[in-house]
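FAQ: What does a ligand-bound record look like?

Like this one, built around thiamine diphosphate:
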Amino acid sequence: MKKTGAQILVDCLVKEGVDTIFGYPGGAVLTIYDALYHSPLRHILVRHEQGAVHAADGYARASGKPGVVVVTSGPGATNTVTGIATAAMDSSPLVVFSGQVNTPLIGNDAFQEADIVGITRPCTKNNYLVKDVKTLAPIIREAFYLARTGRPGPVLIDIPKDIQAQSTDYVFPRQVVPRGYHPTYDGHPGQIQRCLELLATAERPVLYVGGGVILSGAAPEILKFAEAENIPVTMTLMGLGGFPGSHRLSLGMLGMHGTYWANLAVTECDLLIGIGARFDDRVTGKINEFAPLAKKVHIDIDPTSISKSVKVHLPIVGDVKHVLRQLLADAPRPRAEIARARQKWLKRIAEWKKDKPLSYRHGKMIKPQAVVEALCRATKGDAIITTEVGQNQMWTALFYEFNHPRQLITSGGLGTMGFGLPAAIGAQAAFPGKTVIDIAGDGSIQMNIQELATAVQHKLPVKVAILNNGFLGMVRQWQKLFYGGRYSHSRMDVSPDFVKLAEAYGATGLRAQLPAEVEPVIAKALKTKGPVIMDFVVEPEEDVSPMVPAGEAINKMILL
Amino acid sequence: MRKHTISVLVENQFGVLAKVAGMFSARGYNIESLSVAETLDPTISRMTIVTRGDDPIIEQITKHLNKLVPVIKVSDLTGTPHIDREMALIKVEAKEKNRAEILRIAEIFRGKIVDVSPTSFVIEVTGDDEKITAFLALLKPLGIKEIGRSGKVAMGRGPKTAGVEPNGEKEGG
Ligand SMILES: Cc1ncc(C[n+]2csc(CCOP(=O)(O)OP(=O)(O)O)c2C)c(N)n1
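The answer part, i.e. the structure of the complex:
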C-alpha cells in the first residue's frame, strides 16, 4: 500500500504499541501533525519541548514502555536536548522525532535548521537522519528496538519535511537488528560460579542496588536473593523501590546523602555485590576508600560501566534479572557458621541505625522532612513520586519509604532541575488512576512551571508539593558548609505567589505555613480532582543530613 | 602508555566517523592516526585507529567502540600477529649537491620518486612505523619541506578474516 512518510510514522507508532505521544507542532512537522489529526494516538500538547521530553521520560519510567516525542526543527529540536541528556544518563527508553528542513536545504542554514543529529550524537543511544522515505519504517523499528533493549536509552529520528510528504510502498517491516548490536543477557557461567564461591565465605556482605534492577524488572529476584542469603541491601537514588524500603534487610540509600548505617556497612563489608549500579562518584565518594575491605562483584548489562572508576574483582556482564536467576538456581544455603556471622553483621548494622537514626528537630516552622513524611503517610507509601533536584530530592529519597519499583521518578545522573513536573504529567498519563506527586523546590518548579497548563488542559491531576525555603537550598547548603556561609546568589528574593499562580493556570492552590496545617493541606489536595499546587512555607535554612563532603570517603559523614 | 592499533569494522553510513571520533574526544582519549575506507563489502568500512593508553584505558576504548550501534567489530591488533602499513609522501629539497644522495636513500627504502622539479622531489614510501621514522630521520638533514601521511592500515596475519555476518532478521514482534 502507498503511504506518505507522515502516515508511515503514525502507522509504525500504532504497531509498536504506542498509545500516547508528547509533542509540540511547528513548520517542519505540519505534515506529521496532519497525519496525527485522524489517528488513534493520544497527543499531549506541552508548553515547551523540554517538557515534552521529560513527560515522555516520566511516562517511560512509570510504565516501562518507551516514551515518544514529536517536535519541530530548529528551536523545537534544540529545546529537547536537556531532556534527551537526562534520559540518556538514567537509561530511560525514548524515541524522539524531530522535523527537519527540506532535504535540498540541509546545510544551508535554512530557516529553523539545526543539526540536531550532530547536537544529540553524544547523548543518544543512536540517532538517524532519514534521507529516503523507503528507509523510514525500518529506522523506526530499529529505534524502538534499541530504545527498549540492552541498556535502554533515548533514540532520535530527524525527518526532513519533504520526506514526510513523499509516498512509497509500505508494509510494516520485520524487526531487523543491527549487526553490531548484541547486548549480553546471560552471565558467563564461570563468573556465576566464582560469585557463588565468594558468597559462600562472605561474613559481611552487602548488595548495592541501582536503577538497572528497576529497568530489568528484577525486584522480585533481588528480594528472593537477599532473603535466601540474608544479605542487607543498600540502594542508589535510582535503585530506590527496587527493594522494599520497609524490609528488615533494607539499609536505604548510600552515598553523599546516604544513611549513616548504609555508608558504614559499605565501608566495613567484606563482599560488595553491585547490581545494575555504576559506582557513580555521588555514591563512592573518595574512590580508593570505597568499600576498602570488600571483594567487589559487579553485575551490569553495560560492559563500559564495569571497572570504569572502581576496580572490581569479579565482573559479570549481563541483564541483572537473568544473572540473579542464574545465581538463585545454583546458590546453596549458607553454611551454619556463615549464617551466624551474617546474623552478627545485621545486628551490628542495626546498632549503627539505632545510634544515628535519620532525624530532624521540630520547630515553630514547618520542617521539609515532616512534609515528606506526611505525604508518605497520607498516600500510604503508595503514590508515584517525582522530584525536582536539590534538597527536595534528597529529603524525598530519605523520608518517603519506597516499597515498589517505578515508584520514584527522579533525574539522578544529570540532576536536571525542572524535571519533576513534566515527569509527573507523563507518569499520570500512563497511570490516570494513581496519585502522582511532584515533590519540588521553589527554585526548580519555576524551570518548567508552564507545564501546569498541560496538566490542566489534559486533565492530568498531578499534585505538586513545593518545599518553599526561599533559597536554591542545596546551593545554599554547600555555601554554608564549604564557602564560609557566603550565600552568593542563592536566595530567591522574588518568587510568584504559588497559590495565585496555580489559580491563574486553572489549577488549585493551597498553602501551609504552620506545622499543624500540613496534614489538612495534603488531605485536601489529595481529595481535589484536578492538578494542585501545595505551597509549604518551610524552615528556610534546613540542611540535608547526613552529608559526605565532595571527594571524602563515605564514612566521613557530617551529621547536621 | 602503549601505542595500540585498533581495527574497527563499521556500517558504511553517514555520521559514523563523527560518532567514533566524538566518542574519543568526549571521553578524553587520543587519536594518533585514523584511516577509513570501504571494504570488500561496500556496506562496511574499516577504520584503523592508532591510540595510546595504559591497559584500563585501552579496555574502556574498545568497550566504548563496541557500544556504538553502527560499530560491527572491534579488534585490538596490538599483541597479536598482524601487519600494519602506512604510506607517506615527502617533499624534500633537492639541491644539485644532494640529488644523488636522496635518490640513494629512497632506493634503500624502496621509495618512489613521484614528482620532480629543479629544486624538489616528492617521494612515496610505504612501511611500518619504524621504517617511516627511519626514512624521515635520514632525509631530515637534507631538508624536508612537507610531509603527508596516510595513517595506518592494519590486518591480522593468517587465513582468518574479521568475519561479519549480514544484518540479523528477527520475527516481527
Ligand atoms: C538545570 C539546573 N541548573 C542548576 C542546577 C544546580 N542546582 C542543583 S540543586 C540547586 C538548587 C535547587 O533549588 P530548589 O529547587 O529551590 O530546591 P531545594 O534545594 O531548595 O530543595 C541548583 C541550582 C541544576 N541541578 N540543574
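Follow-up question: can I read anything off the structure? Yes, for example: Chain B has four helices and ten strands.
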